[in-house]
Amino acid sequence: MNNANPPAATTPLILCAADVVQHISYATETNGFSLAETDCFTPPETDCACPTERPESPSDGAVDDSVAYHMPALHTDTLPGGYVLAFNPFGSAGVVVLDGAAWELLNRFRQPRRLADAGENDDLHRAARRLAELELIQRLDRPAGARRAASQTLTAWLHITNECNLRCDYCYVSKTPDAMDMARGRQAVDAVIRSALAHGFRRIKLKYAGGEATLNASIIFATHQYARECAGKHGLALDGVLLSNGVALGNRLIRQIRDSGLRLMISLDGIGDVHDAHRRFVNGRGSFACVARTLDRLAEYGVTPSISITLSRRNLAGLAATVEYVLDRGLPFALNFYRENDCSASAADLSFQDDQVIAAMREAFAVIARRLPPYSLLGALIDLARLDTPHDRPCGVGHAYLVIDHRGGVAKCHMEIERTVTDVAAPDPLRLIREDAVGIQNVPVDEKEGCRTCTWRYWCAGGCPALTYRVTGRYDVKSPNCRIYRALFPEALRLEGMRLLHYGYTASSNNSARLSSRSRIADLPRR
């Protein structure tokens, strides 16, 4: 961290994401985003089974004035105006912004001391307790360690059809006209619910995918309605998302998506020719113009899709412009790295070098810094890495994820959809997925060579196991993208710190309590 001193203050300012969420009015649109529709802690949708649960925040009861606390090894950085970013890589509170008084107070805990002994007045004592709640200081009598939340959501990929109107070069699906019928859709839902109940899940999440799932749209809506009825009978929450290439969504279909309650994810890999370099129709014609037209239609109907941007060597040069495009339209987005597969292996110009993607990502980060969205991007900026919640595994494969093909076969991962383990007739498909020792193995990060002592291990969790195995022939080693993660994590955290500072300042200004006027920590709302 630079040696610049944060602004001096008599009462400490400690700002985290939850404070900013409560500061900003949900009814107000800011820079084109409506926070009424955007959850600060919910990352944009992707085509993967990334972890979604966050650990519960420590309660006030977990803070004990009678025991000694100390400052653990933190990642820190200086933000504009001299404020300090603090992040505990073995905590679960995320990025925290401190002013000068808070930074000085935090540094008192380089030597262990009780909270009551940290300051001379009530303001400092409350601030010390807040530092403890946010895990920037930790109890000496308890071992440090990131609290990982057990998954409460069973995610299922429903492969609605093998058919597609595009021929994307990086796709892993062998195209055929085969599609799921309603009987199979109902069997799939029943199988997911049986496993959810058997393993104590509270929520099921269904991803309707393909191929191009909208080519079998009637089955999507009928299946989701059936899922809603079944989930309600069993007391399960239900979440549904439709994954689409976005080229053929007419007005009627958009109204159906909106009225069904399904969320929508659309793939967009660039602007104009940059997108078309990846995603072309069967006849070779580019698809960007059709996707752009769909995005305009969705806006007219009040539907805000998540945008999935897949990076390969072909579109890295256009990444900054792509990010600018989606931010200007108020669209949440996620950045994903190309993964070689059997179908794409012949396209040698898709793979990139570490330095190439790092440079492109930094250009995109510079765009984000100029157009900071009101919601956090920590769960969406760097491939499968989730800097918004600590986790042992990069995704739910083999543990909290089912992939059900159009025939009713059940696989571990959508990238290995042709290697089924069981089928939807099994009493508990998830149990058989968990017990399978032959296919893809999703090893906990603490068991991976090269990860066990890494500061960032609970945030990338060692990366995609399918990619790691394809490159190394092993599941128990660090990701081939490790160098990329290490280079970009600090910069992604910095963006989040700048976002907190910007929106905390904006909201406080609206309440006549600017950050620069040293608002009291007691005046900041908490969850």
Structure description:
- The radius of gyration is 24 Å and the shape is globular.
- It has helices at residues 17-23, 100-107, 122-133, 182-198, 217-233, 251-260, 273-276, 288-300, 319-328, 354-370, 429-435, 457-460, 465-472, 482-510; strands at 14-16, 29-30, 33-34, 68-70, 75-78, 84-87, 95-98, 113-114, 138-139, 153-161, 203-210, 237-244, 263-267, 306-311, 333-337, 401-404, 409-411, 420-423.
- α1 (17-23) runs parallel beside α14 and α10 packs parallel to α14.
- α9 links the parallel β14 and β15.
- The chain is of the alpha/beta class.
- The protein has a nine-stranded mixed sheet with strand order 15-14-13-12-11-10-16-17-18, covered by helices on one side. A four-stranded antiparallel sheet has the order 1-7-6-5, with helices on both faces. The protein has a three-stranded antiparallel sheet with strand order 8-4-9, with no helix packed on it.
- It contains 14 helices and 18 strands.
- The longest helix has 29 residues, at 482-510.
- The two termini are 29 Å apart.
